[in-house]
Write a structure and sequence with these properties.
heterodimer, A: about 110 residues, mainly beta, four-stranded antiparallel β-sheet, B: seven-stranded mixed β-sheet, 11 strands, about 55% strand
């Protein structure tokens, strides 16, 4: 199975700052990488697929980049409603699809 | 509008059985594959099983293979997960989710909680 690793585990930033979340894969994924946002008590929400394509109704401040084994989710200007855990997920080699352990984003 | 709603979660003893249901609306099983996932509260996401839109193909995570069975009732718009020989490590919130493209997921249900405990 492909192992996904996310960093940092927790990120604490002020409103308006840029957040950079990293995700690494144990094998090359091409661009078969998705990002999800999960707020407390809610189900995951698809943000990004194909490493860089925003899903429907996702604000433009969210962007994804990378290919192969190294990927990044950037939130250009943090807002209070962005507090959540963010997961990356590979779909290059399945089953199973696999997720990273998550990055918890906090607002100072 | 697309919706998925899970039900059937409960407290069950180790070794017991439980069947979860996922009722879908706003799309067809013929057009999209639907999956089961689980999440230990406060922890990460684990893929569990899928029932392909082709109506035939199923897959299971190694952790549940031989104990869980996925099935589908097209007429009832329902996906099921029969869980047998339950273990404490199966305790989790179980979600069903719809594929957007191949193997990534745009709609999730709210989840149903399974607790395996004596």
């Amino acid at each position: 199975d492909i192992v996904m690793t996310q960093s940092p585990a927790t990120l604490s930033l002020s409103p308006g700052e840029r957040a950079i979340l990293s995700c690494w894969a144990s094998q090359s994924l091409g661009n078969k990488l998705a990002w999800y946002q999960q707020k407390t008590g809610q189900s995951p929400r698809l943000l990004i697929y194909g490493a860089s394509t925003r899903a429907t109704d996702v604000p433009a401040r969210f962007s994804g980049s990378g290919s192969g084994t190294d990927f990044t989710l950037t939130i250009s200007s943090l807002q209070s409603e962005d507090v959540a855990v963010y997961y990356c997920q590979q779909y290059s080699q399945w089953p199973p699809v696999t997720f990273g352990q998550g990055t918890k984003l906090e607002i100072k | 509008e697309v919706h998925l709603v899970e039900s059937g979660g409960a407290v069950v003893q180790p070794g017991g059985s439980l069947t979860l249901s996922c009722v879908i609306s706003g799309f067809s099983f013929r057009d999209y594959t639907v999956h089961w996932f689980r999440q230990i509260p406060g922890k990460g996401l684990e893929w569990v099983s899928l029932f392909s839109r082709n109506g035939v193909t199923t897959f299971y995570a190694d952790s549940v293979k031989g104990r869980f069975t996925i099935s589908r009732d097209y007429g009832r718009s329902s996906l099921y997960l029969q869980m047998d020989s339950l273990r404490s490590e199966d305790t989790a919130l179980y979600y069903c989710a719809k594929e957007h493209g191949t193997m990534y997921f745009d709609y999730w249900g709210p989840g149903t909680l399974v607790t395996v405990s004596s």
